[in-house]
Design a protein that fits this description.
The structure holds 2 protein chains of 2 kinds. Chain A is α+β, with helices and mostly antiparallel strands. In chain A, about 40% of the residues lie in helices and about 30% in strands. Chain A has a single domain, classed as Protein Transport Mog1p, Chain A. Chain B is an alpha+beta fold. The radius of gyration of chain B is 16 Å and the shape is globular. The chains are: A alpha+beta, B alpha+beta.
């Protein structure tokens, strides 16, 4: 019985890992050879570099703690594609089909944006951001244990184009 | 006999890891820098003790600057493909835009290996291979120290914007 329980736990854990990043991985594979898109992939190893830094204040300590819990970041972006609006619509369909919950949407004349999350056990384990403009498309996935309070600070510290949009979450929460 | 073949096959990769990089870039380089603990200590003119302790764990640190042909045909991208096949893990990659880079690593209890390349706007492409007992978290300190010594500005990749 104990053996069966352990086996089920291992299977569930591997399924959860597999489910993480399903949408962004699909686009990574699809656009692997397309040079019109910039593709960024950062693993937990890079985030672990923050653990060596010494915090100068309580806020910094909180920030470093939040960063150390991140497992990865993937971004696909392009500023010069003709079918950005179509890609945005398709991405939203894929995100909904994959079971993500909508966190926030922003619509304006220039571009649309949607933040979605995947939760497990009350904790956010993946944050997806998709941006669609006239020629601009961005799909960003941040995964690990995500603390929304520190998202904008993380976004600023990374200085990756597109991530700055994450500050909009902080403003609304 | 079977044991001997197995031993040979399993032992070879330990020595072959930097040859992947050499095979790919040796004929396409402008400059090559080879650092060992002694040479790394030699450039430490201020005799920074913490730096000396850090580099004592380095077995080998190879840095190549690639030529214009490699920069234009982007053949250096094969570095990440071949090292992934050799069992390295991908730590970070950026493809497209003004910056292309890839960092991979393979770690065990006794030593670590890191390999990768940086292409900054096609103006300079740097490929590197580092092996030794040097924790991943200490790599930025090593590079920062080398930059402070005005030895190399090869790793000045602060701008992550695309």
């Amino acid at each position: 019985m104990k053996k069966l329980f352990i086996t089920i736990t291992i299977i569930m854990a591997s399924l959860a890992t597999y489910a993480q990043g399903t949408v962004v991985n699909k686009y990574f594979n699809q656009l692997a050879d397309n040079d019109q898109f910039t593709k960024v992939s950062i693993s937990s190893k890079m985030f672990s570099l923050f653990t060596e830094l010494e915090a100068g204040s309580e806020a910094e300590e909180e920030f470093l703690k939040a960063v150390s819990k991140l497992k990865g970041l993937k971004v696909i972006a392009s500023d010069s594609i003709g079918n950005a609006a179509k890609m945005y619509s398709q991405a939203l369909k894929d995100i909904d089909a994959a079971g993500y919950d909508e966190l926030m949407s922003v619509k304006d004349a220039e571009e649309n944006m949607r933040f979605s999350i995947k939760e497990s056990g009350g904790k956010i384990e993946e944050l997806l951001m998709v941006v669609g403009g006239k020629k601009r498309f961005v799909l960003l996935s941040l995964y690990g244990e995500i603390d929304l309070k520190n998202i904008s600070k993380i976004a600023r510290s990374m200085n990756v184009g597109g991530l700055d949009n994450l500050s909009k979450i902080d403003a609304d929460n | 006999m079977v044991f001997a073949i197995f031993l040979g096959l399993s032992y070879r990769p330990l020595f072959a890891q930097d040859t992947i990089l050499k095979d790919l870039v040796e004929s396409k380089r402008d400059n090559k820098y080879c650092f060992y603990p002694s040479t790394l200590r030699m450039i430490n003119l201020k005799q920074n003790q913490a730096y000396n302790e850090l580099v004592s764990g380095v077995d080998k640190f190879l840095i190549y600057t690639l030529d214009s042909a490699a920069r234009s045909d982007k053949s250096y991208r094969g570095i990440s493909e071949q090292y992934l096949e050799a069992g390295f893990d991908e730590y970070a990659t950026v493809f497209g835009g003004d910056m292309n880079m890839s960092i991979l690593g393979k770690e065990n209890a006794r030593n670590q290996e890191y390999v990768g390349y940086f292409d900054q706007k096609g103006e300079m492409v740097v490929a590197f291979y580092l092996k030794g007992n040097i924790p991943w978290q200490k790599i930025p300190t090593l590079i920062q120290n080398m930059n402070e010594m005005d030895m190399l500005d090869l790793f000045d990749f602060k701008d992550f914007t695309f």
